[in-house]
Structures are given as C-alpha cells and as structure tokens.
Design goal:
Blueprint: E1 2-10, E2 16-23, E3 31-38, H1 42-45, H2 70-75, E4 79-84, E5 95-96, H3 106-118, E6 123-129, H4 134-144, E7 153-156, H5 162-166, E8 167-168, E9 171-172, H6 175-182, E10 194-195, H7 197-201, H8 204-215, H9 218-221, H10 224-231, H11 237-243, H12 250-253, H13 257-260, E11 268-273, H14 277-289, E12 294-299, H15 313-323, E13 337-341, E14 346-350, E15 359-366, E16 370-372, E17 386-390, E18 401-405, E19 413-427, E20 433-441, E21 447-456, E22 487-501, E23 506-512, E24 538-543, E25 551-557
C-alpha cells in the first residue's frame, strides 16, 4: 500500500489536523476514502498492521484501537484515512471537552476534512467514515454538518447520549475514565492540548465550588481515587467533566450527537451489541431520529469487540460498496433491522423498533423469592418485606443482594424490546443505588446476563410526559434526597434486549446497590466497567405485597400462528 504519514489537513480556523493516509498501491484509478477520527492517537491505530486481533480478557486487548483493519480496508479498494482530532496526537489546536463539545466542534472539523479529501488527486470524491465507539460517535456529529462529499456513515457502538456515557440512571459509570485516562488495558487520550469543558463554561469560583460539592458526596468521599482527583484536578480534564457534572442538562445536551441526529440526511448504518446496554438505548434512539436511508444491526453477546477492531468489516464493505462504489449487492433489498435473538441464537430481520406485535406483560415479585404472573393478595402485615444490608467497601469486600426467580418455563418465551422494574423500597439513609440485573438460568443453574437497569434513588423523578409503562423516563436534572424510612416506588428502566427463555429455563432478577466487579461477565467488559459503589451503609427493605405490587414489565413477543 501507499502510505503518507503526518499529512496536514487544513481547518477553516487555520488549525491543521494530522492524518495518516493508507491507499492501494500501483493503481492510477481514483478510490473512495473512509475517514476515522479520535483523540486516541493515529500511531496506536496503526497497530492493526502488526497485531493479530485480541478478544477480552486477553492481556493484549487495548480498548482504544478502534479505527478498523487498515490492510482489509486498503485491500478492498478504499483509502483509509486516520486522523487525530484537534489538541491530540500530532494535530494542532485545542480540544475542549469530550468530542470538543465546549470548543470548535468536531462536526465542523469532519466537514473540512471530508471536503479536503474529496479534492485530493487520488480520491474519487466519495467519502464514508469508519471506526467504533469514539470514532462512531463523531460520525453523527460530522454527518449533521452535511458535508457534500460525505455520502454515508457506518457507526458501530457509538455513545450518542453524552450523559448516558458517564451516568446510568444517575449512577456514575467508571469506564470513561479508562478510555480517557488510560487504565487497565486502555491507552487513553493522546493528550497534546486538552482543556475541560467545565473550565470553559464555569468561572474559577464555580469550578472550585463544584469540586467542594462533589467531595461532600459520601459515594465520592469513600472512593479514594476520586478524592485524589478532585483535590488535584488539572491532570484528567476530560474525565473531570463527567465527575463534576452529575446532573443532566445544558452541559451535556450542547454537543450531544443525539441533539443533532435529526439533521442527518445521508444513509446511516448503526450497529451495537447486546450487553452494551448503555449504548443499545442510544443507538436505537439515533437510528429512529436520523432522516435518511438507515439500517440497524443489534448484534450478539458478548458486548465487547476484538481489538484491533475488525469485526463487522464484511457488512461495512457491503454498505460502502453500494453507496460509495455503486455496486448493487442487494443490501438495500433487506429489511432495515437485523437483530440477533439470544437464547435461541438466531438472526431475524424486522422493519421497525419497537416490534409492532409486542405485548408488555407484568411479572410480580412474590414471597419466597418467586416471580409470578399474578400479584400478591395479602397485605404487608402478612407479607413482610425482603431485604439486604450493604456496608460500604471501606469495611467489606462482600456485595449483598436479593434475588427472585420464576419457576422453570413450560415452553419457550421470547422477550424483545425495552422493559422496566417497578419496585417499592424503604431505606434508612438519604440515598442509595438500585441496580437490577436480569438473567436466563438454564436447568443446570448456569446463568447468562439478559439486561440491566440502574437508578440512583435521589434521581427517581419521572417525566411522565415522556414515560411509557415499559420505558420510564428520568430527566436526571435534579437530585432529591430520600426521606429515611419512607416506602417509595422506584421505576427502573431496563435496557433493550432480545432473549428466548427456553422451556426448562428460569428467569432470575437480582437487586443490589453495588455490583460484583470480578465475575466472568465483568471480564468481558471494558476496564473499570462498573459503577461508583454506594458509600453509605444502607439497609434496603423491598416490599411486594397487595399494596406495594413490585413488578417487572417485560416485552413478550407472541408466537407466530
């Protein structure tokens, strides 16, 4: 292949982005280009030329080698252009906030890069984009700017809701720290000139006040890493933006890809794996919002792709061969949604999401740790609550929980879509985490994750105008402390999933306020892919009597007649 290193691509404000260009050798024909941009360093991405793909939990797995397989791209007749976003790697300028949401904006830079590439003598003027995670997220920002020569995008595993990137149900998720700082198998950002958005939008006094406020939080105060970060903040600016802003609102909405998704008119292909609940939700939302031709793949578990990233390239080439090369390969004759149904381990095509024949059914929590289709007929005086006590990790390594289970199903039952857990809980502190995990348990007792849900008790406020019974919507714009001793119904959103519970299997629900970080499922996830543990010693009482009908709402798909 022909390789051009450290090519300077001019931006409208005089800044130059650094890029490496890999293209087919020995041909005078012009070729289309696939553009990849991130802050993780273009030199790291070149490891796809020398390292065989690694799957977790390989010690060589590096979570930010995500630009794609260079050799495959070039062999397929495309130029692969890998660029450092401004303020990182070998690029000029300054990056302000995640996705430059507090600065010039990565969407504008993508516009300028696309139009510059289209003018190069080796390029035929047809440009697409490539890469997962950060590389996928920025594709939506670039497409929303409508550069004339960007003909299609292919976004896999993007984080399109910026608040959801760091907070699940208001509970801080630690994975972005790994990808931004470089921890436990992630190289992190190739920092050159990076500034936090918080430093841009808040005065120095407001910034310090936010630090003081976060240090008062018992969850933070009992997590020494964050006490350290908040006292010495000028080292990890992009992570500090998440840490300092626990509420949703203007800070996250300005620059969020979801906020501009309705401006995307070019063909857009979205992919995401089941088990990455936090991105499945946003990916489906982005798919539903974009205006042009669109496709969606909901892919099988486990949730993390190989690194260097090479999965899904075959489908990507079909997509770009059609839109960039004009090859009629039948891809547009297929249904827009391809989904993998776990449990029966089969692919199926659909035309819309949610599935139109979905029946949302209640499954009630009952005494003796049972889940049944009918509610409890007796009151709390005869049906005392279940419960668990969780001490903070400062004094224990044990994670406590309470579990309910169905009897073995007598026939196969498919559940595909979104769901919810409505649970009545009394605690003896002013806040806690509520973490719900749903499992498929086979006749031998082996369980497989199906979906999860998260809610910080102080974030329980619902926006009823945006909520559905099976999809509660929490704005997360304010925190309201819990009155200790009060029984409150919490509506916990369960991330979208698809699973057939086979005859003889059981469905199991586990409720906790912390989570195991060293089980077999966690090993398949990115580094630090757990949530900030609750720092309060808390007793949880879960009521499921006649007057407190705690229950699951799950998307049952009727059998075809």
């Amino acid at each position: 292949m022909e390789i051009e290193k450290d090519v300077k691509i001019p931006m409208r404000d005089g800044v130059h982005l650094a890029a490496d260009i890999y293209r087919p050798e020995g041909t005078d024909e012009k070729v289309p280009a696939l553009l990849a941009l991130s802050p993780y360093g273009k030199e790291l991405q070149s490891q796809s030329l020398t390292m065989t793909p690694q799957k977790r939990p390989s010690v060589l797995w590096n979570g930010v080698i995500e630009a794609g397989d260079i050799r495959e791209v070039v062999d397929h007749g495309y130029a692969h252009v890998i660029a450092d976003v401004r303020g990182t790697g070998f690029s000029e300028g300054q990056l302000i906030g995640n996705y430059d949401s507090g600065g010039h904006g990565e969407g504008k830079d993508i516009y300028d890069a696309v139009e510059w590439l289209a003018e190069q003598p080796w390029c035929d003027g047809n440009i697409g984009m490539i890469g997962i995670s950060y590389f996928a997220t920025v594709q939506l920002l670039g497409a929303a700017e409508n550069p004339p020569h960007l003909k299609a995008i292919f976004a896999n595993g993007g984080h399109f809701d910026l608040y959801e990137l760091a907070y699940h149900g208001g509970i801080l998720w630690l994975m972005p720290r790994a990808s931004r700082e470089g921890r436990g198998g992630d190289s992190g950002v190739a920092v050159r000139n990076v500034k936090g958005k918080s430093e841009e939008v808040y005065s120095p006094e407001e910034y310090q006040e936010k630090i003081k406020e976060r240090l008062k939080d018992p969850d933070i105060a009992n997590w020494s890493d964050f006490v350290h970060l908040l006292n010495y903040p000028n080292r990890h600016e992009l992570w500090m933006d998440f840490l300092l802003n626990p509420l949703n609102g203007k800070f996250y909405e300005e620059g969020s890809p979801l906020a501009v998704a309705d401006k995307v008119n070019i063909p857009a292909y979205f992919q995401v794996k089941w088990g990455r609940g936090w991105t499945v939700d946003g990916t489906i939302e982005a798919f539903n919002r974009v205006k042009g031709v669109k496709k969606l793949d909901l892919q099988p578990y486990p949730p993390m792709q190989t690194r260097p990233f090479d999965e899904s390239h075959e489908e990507m080439f079909r997509w770009y061969d059609y839109w960039l090369k004009g090859i009629d390969n039948g891809i547009m004759d297929e249904d827009p949604i391809q989904m993998f149904v776990e449990g029966e381990r089969k692919w199926r095509s659909e035309k819309e999401w949610p599935l139109p024949n979905t029946e949302y059914k209640n499954f009630y929590l009952r005494p003796r740790h049972k889940i049944e289709v009918t509610p409890e007929p007796l009151g709390a005086e005869n049906v005392p609550p279940d419960g668990f006590y969780q001490a903070p990790y400062t004094v224990t390594n044990d994670t406590h929980s309470v579990t309910w289970s169905t009897d073995a199903f007598l026939e196969d039952i498919e559940m595909t879509g979104s769901g919810a857990l409505y649970v009545h809980v009394e605690i003896d502190t002013d806040d806690t985490n509520l973490i719900a995990k749903l499992y498929d348990v086979d006749p031998h007792g082996k369980r497989k994750p199906v979906t999860t849900g998260y809610l910080k008790a102080s974030h329980r406020e619902l926006d009823k105008s945006k909520s559905k019974r099976w999809a509660p919507y929490h704005p997360h714009t304010r925190a309201e402390p819990v009155q200790a001793g009060e029984v409150i119904e919490y509506a916990i959103k369960l991330y979208p999933f698809s699973n057939v519970f086979k005859a003889g299997h059981k469905m199991e629900l586990v409720l906790s306020n912390n989570e195991q970080i060293n089980d077999s499922s966690a090993q398949l996830l990115p580094p630090d892919s757990y949530h900030l543990p609750c720092g309060r010693a808390t007793t949880h009482k879960i009521y499921r009597d006649k007057d407190h009908q705690s229950h699951l709402v799950l998307p049952v798909i009727p059998k075809s007649k």
